[in-house]
Specification:
mainly alpha, Arc Repressor Mutant, subunit A
Length: about 80
């Protein structure tokens, strides 16, 4: 099976929004390749550090909420 990394990145970014705390931090318990790609896309700050969370950029926060709503919200 070939994995669509764009879809994986979108889903992980949406789930990072689910675990937001302190305004822009999210728990980084996701695949390192995915968080590296999200960093390269400018959605999160550098995930390579000793903290257990990552900081979403302003664009990352906006896109994460949009993706979360698209992927997981029930229609109203």
């Amino acid at each position: 099976m070939e994995i669509d990394e764009e879809k994986v990145d979108d889903a992980v970014l949406a789930l990072l929004w689910l675990t937001l705390h302190d305004g822009c931090r999210a728990w980084k318990s996701f695949d390192w390749d995915t968080t590296d790609r999200l960093h390269a896309k400018g959605m999160i700050e550098d995930p390579v550090n000793k903290t257990k969370s990552v900081v979403l950029t302003e664009e990352g926060l906006r896109r994460a909420e949009e993706l979360f709503r698209d992927l997981f919200a029930r229609p109203t």
